[in-house]
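go over whats below:
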Amino acid sequence: MATKPFTYLLLYFPIALVASLVLTAAKEDGVENIARKGLKTFLLLSLAILVGAVLVWAVQRFA
């Protein structure tokens, strides 16, 4: 059985991707446009979370 943090990480990807696509669909027209901008939003969100996690880790590790 997977550990809880790993399970939460696995759940993040589909939930965040669907949320990004739904929020983009409310603003955009056309499936191709929605998919491209929704994926871009998902990647930026993931990058922001990753950078924030690395910063928190660095502060805790070296402070």
Summary: The chain has one domain: 4-62.
